[in-house]
């Protein structure tokens, strides 16, 4: 019988490790990773109409207007691969109106993972973060330096990763976070993100494994 696909939301402050954990989750569970930050950065890089509108908001650490982001997410969620493989939503919803858009079309996750990391660690993580524009892999100059000289020569810094912009992103996150959590409180799992990434993943892995096992049991009983 076909396996029931998982539906996962991952949330947390800027640099709490969402993208890093998503890489590991996708590798093991094969879910479709939908990151609004990545989708928006691709639009900016390709200089599309959406990208031109989004850039100024992103560069200032502000949220991009809902109608842009919500249309992008809903259209991605409606594609076939998502229905077959399940989804991993990263960075959305980020406001109560975005959460309401999902509730409106009855899209709810099986689990809402919240990565918890102290503020002072977040700033250091952003300042040291580098991106490989070829593979989109996330590095950190101290914590996870690139594996080869070739990658070191091509990694780039995100335009919103300066100390000042990170502080403003953090403020935006804190303002919005409290309005979303009540909507998912029955599905909320807080994970301590201030540990080596393998340990963080071990906790997430056991949560997802538990849900998959519960699905399998229900199917067996039917
Ligand atoms: P987005 O890209 O979502 O940015 P963010 O939420 O600020 O999160 P980050 O990507 O900065 O961090 P992360 O948690 O993925 O951490 P990472 O794994 O990279 O959004 C960017 C912008 O787009 C927003 O500001 C907004 O303008 C716009 N936007 C996006 N979604 C939107 C929405 N829904 N509505 C409106 N606007 C939206 O890790 C960070 C660093 O730490 C890396 O260097 C990594 O190597 C390192 N690291 C990771 N884990 C560990 C660990 N366990 N130990 C040590 N180091 C670690």
Describe the structure.
This protein has helices spanning 18-29, 36-45, 49-59, 66-77, 80-85, 96-104, 119-128, 149-154, 163-180, 197-221, and strands at 7-12, 32-35, 87-90, 111-116, 129-131, 138-140, 188-192. The strands form 2 sheets. Strands 2-3-1-4-7 form a 5-stranded parallel beta sheet, with helices on both faces. Strands 5-6 form a two-stranded antiparallel ribbon. It is an alpha/beta fold. Helix 1 crosses helix 10. It has one domain (7-205): 3-Layer(aba) Sandwich (Rossmann fold). The chain is built from 10 helices and 7 strands. The structure holds BIS(adenosine)-5'-pentaphosphate (AP5). It is found in: Plastid, Chloroplast. It comes from Zingiber officinale (Ginger).
Oligomer: single chain
User: What is the CATH architecture descriptor?
Assistant: 3-Layer(aba) Sandwich
Bound molecules: BIS(adenosine)-5'-pentaphosphate
Strands, count = 7
> Helicity level, as a percent range?
40-55%
- How do the strands of the widest beta sheet line up side by side? 2-3-1-4-7
Radius of gyration: 17 Å
Residue stretches low in confidence (pLDDT < 50, at least 5 long) are none
| Whole-number count of domains | 1
- Residue-averaged pLDDT, rounded? 95
Shape: globular
What is the CATH class? Alpha Beta
**Tally of separate helices:** 10
- Provide the CATH superfamily: P-loop containing nucleotide triphosphate hydrolases
Q: How many angstroms separate the termini? A: 12 Å
The CATH topology turns out to be Rossmann fold
Protein name: adenylate kinase
Family: Belongs to the adenylate kinase family.
Subcellular location: Plastid, Chloroplast
